[in-house]
Amino acid sequence: MEQVVLHVDLDQFIVAVELLRRPELRGEPVLVGGTGDPTRRGVVAGASYEARESGVHSGTPLRTAAKRCPRAVFLPLDKDAYLAASATFVSALRDRSEVVEEAGWDEAYLLLDTDDATRSATELRVHVHARTGLACSVGIGDNKLRAKTASGFAKPTAGFTDTGIFRLDRRNWPHIMNERPPEALRGVGRRTATRLAEHDLHTVGDLAATDRFALAEHFGPRTGPWLVALARGYDPTPVQPEPYRPRSYGREITFQTDVTDPEPLRTELTRLAHLIAEDLAAHDLLAGRVVVKLRNSHFRTHSHGVRLTTPTREPTALAAASHKALTAFALTRPVRLIGTRAELLTSTNTETEGR
């Protein structure tokens, strides 16, 4: 008997939910986003594997996606359907383990005691499909980092396995990871990889062999050692059984015509603040900070935040904070998108208990 961490990730989640309702579209390049109209502004929220072959991914503007993949079938977003599918998915996982940590609406970690991890993962995949109709990839690891990385190798498009299951632990981590670029590590982006290359660290193996204190001189006392630990596959974070709670609630809108006048921006921020206030009230949460995001006509995105003097979910207070954040922007270019998010502080119950 051994204890393993499983990372379970639903495959092409948003598209897969839509295909349950539209099975005739299986095998077609399907893109989900906005109102489903590619002539209008918006971005792709979900892309089928067939559409991804044309270079379309989540975040691709709908108009760009239509040019890259002219055969694509566009569908509108249906958030309620995805939330319902997510709830059923998590319920299915809890059938198999008492320790389930939700990592998003389409992925979660499980802590499992088993005498055959591969068999348990196989049975879990069958169970999830039976409960939800959705396929999932399962990464088996001896910690969360390795399990999460392994599930990426288990994906149908990864080309490592046709079982939807992959195992990555301290025994095979160096063999699988050492020759890969640092970007293969979760949390390492292009900018960090470029900085690592400046110090002649071009692979995960190079990074893993580096003295963590030496790297601290160049990346800081926390980031340097963390990068080395990451390259070695080390992750002390336990699987937490608490229900998943987002760190913030946000809303945004893409304008169909670029906006140059600040007044419509303030109007939209007020409207979005009221929607966020409803989200916070529904979950009995308070905001401690408000952040406004702008994307200009050159697709450059910037954000500014304002800390609230008193934790709140009152729409007028959230709107006022977002208006204040808006004044920090130069607004030298037309605005394509505006959004605001409320970063969470605590629930009202916790707030009351802390007084």
Provide an overview of this structure.
- Strand 5 and strand 6 (107-114) form a beta hairpin.
- It is built from 14 helices and 12 strands.
- The strands form 3 sheets. A 5-stranded mixed β-sheet has the order 5-6-1-7-8.
- The chain is of the alpha+beta class.
- The longest helix is centred in the last third of the chain and has 21 residues, at 262-282.
- It has helices at 13-21, 49-52, 62-68, 79-94, 117-132, 144-153, 173-177, 190-198, 204-208, 212-219, 223-231, 262-282, 315-326, 348-353, and strands spanning 2-10, 30-32, 46-47, 73-75, 100-104, 107-114, 136-141, 165-168, 248-259, 285-296, 301-312, 335-347.
- It is globular, with a radius of gyration of 22 Å.
Task: Please outline what is shown here.
The radius of gyration is 22 Å and the shape is globular. The chain is built from 14 helices and 12 strands. The N and C termini lie far apart (46 Å).
